[in-house]
TrEMBL record:
UniProt xrefs under InterPro entries: ABC_BtuC-like (IPR037294), ABC_transptr_permease_BtuC (IPR000522)
Protein name, entry field: Iron ABC transporter permease
Localisation per UniProt entry: Cell membrane
Family to which the UniProt record says this protein belongs: Belongs to the binding-protein-dependent transport system permease family. FecCD subfamily.
Transmembrane parts of this sequence: 55-73, 85-105, 111-131, 143-163, 190-211, 231-257, 307-327
Record's bilayer topology term: Multi-pass membrane protein
Organism: Streptomyces dubilierae
Keywords: Cell membrane, Membrane, Transmembrane, Transmembrane helix, Transport
Pfam assignment, any one: FecCD
Keyword S-adenosyl-L-methionine in annotation: no
Length: 335
């Protein structure tokens, strides 16, 4: 197990190094020169004020989404219960876009947008709990209500577009998910939030393991299943809201990474939760590096200097393809 964590840590370092040199404007030689104290003011600004915060935000957001997904899988006993099932992702998008349309927040103010997104995400989760409360945390009802809440919030976002069509660019940015333009303020807002709720998720590893076995076994072991599930959902909502507020709705990270973490680190959540965090960080960081390299290649092929491929588009395409492969290879499995 120690060797697996070590190998994954090395992979995270490699992905981080590739992401730093993947973007336009700086070659690997220039990056190395700046790290050794050289380079001009522009090169130092690009590396230390743009590249490094983008890298750290990508790592932290990936870890948050992966841990949130594993918590949801365990609490709801549903392998397809990604963070979107809580209504947090579309709620955060709606909050950020609505605040921008009303002039309460602007994309030049990360703090205002993050607060608006967090408020929207928590509002989406509150709506879900209000509708699913009568089921006393029943996993199936919570998942179904989550899909309905997400659809309603998505419709409200479309209505905002009708009123303020000029917000189309911001809506696409939040719906797809991107790390473009992330600065140190995003990082300073995200990492304390992720640390607190990540620690809370790890402390719930024991109750979550019992919930994975079913409510009857959990009750027989003396666990208050409804209370434990509520705390777990609160943890997942908080982690998802923080990640979405920072990078938007990255698709399939919270859905597929937990399966990979359990396959690598086992069903013991005391190991698989940290493993999921590390795996999610590697996936998002690697996808962001690949997106930047792809953007440079497409810009050269299409002769377009401003072409940018958002990381969310890449994770959505790869995640959907991987999900189709898994489903086709296990046709008898019930999801």
């Amino acid at each position: 197990m120690t060797r697996r964590f070590t190998l994954l840590t090395v992979l995270a370092v490699v992905c981080a190094a590739v992401e730093v040199v993947a973007g336009r404007g700086m070659s690997p030689g220039v990056v190395w020169d700046v790290l050794n104290g050289g380079g001009d003011a522009t090169e130092r600004h690009i590396l230390f004020q743009l590249r490094l915060p983008r890298l750290l935000v990508a790592l932290c957001a990936g870890a948050c989404l992966a841990v949130a997904g594993l918590v949801l899988h365990s609490a709801l006993r549903n392998p397809l219960a990604g963070p979107e099932v809580t209504g947090v992702t579309p709620g955060a998008v709606l909050g950020a876009v609505t605040a921008t349309a009303l002039g309460l927040a602007g994309w030049d103010s990360p703090l205002a947008v993050v607060l608006a997104a967090c408020a929207g995400g928590c509002g989406g989760a509150a709506l879900l709990w209000l509708l699913a409360g009568r089921g006393r945390g029943d996993p199936a009802q919570t998942a179904v209500h989550g899909v309905l809440v997400s659809a309603v919030l998505g419709g409200l976002t479309a209505m905002v577009l009708l009123v303020e069509p000029g917000e189309l660019g911001s809506v696409v940015q939040w719906l797809v998910g991107t790390t473009e333009g992330r600065v140190w303020q995003h990082w300073h807002l995200l990492w304390p939030w992720a640390l607190v709720w990540g620690a809370a998720a790890w402390l719930l590893a024991g109750p979550l393991t019992l919930l994975r076995c079913g409510d009857d076994i959990a009750l027989a072991a003396g666990l208050a299943a409804h209370r434990a599930r509520t705390l777990a959902l609160l943890c997942a909502v908080a982690l998802t809201a923080g990640a979405v507020a920072a990078v938007g709705a990255l698709g399939f990270v919270g859905l597929l990474v937990p399966h990979l973490a359990v396959a690598v680190f086992g069903a013991d959540l005391r190991r698989s939760l940290p493993g999921a965090a590390l795996t999610g960080a590697v996936v998002v960081c690697g996808a962001d590096a690949a997106a930047q390299l792809s953007s440079r290649l497409l810009a050269a092929v299409l002769d377009s200097g401003r072409l940018t491929l958002p990381v969310g588009a890449l994770t959505a395409c790869l995640g959907a393809a991987l999900l189709l492969v898994v489903v086709r290879r296990t046709p008898g499995r019930t999801f």
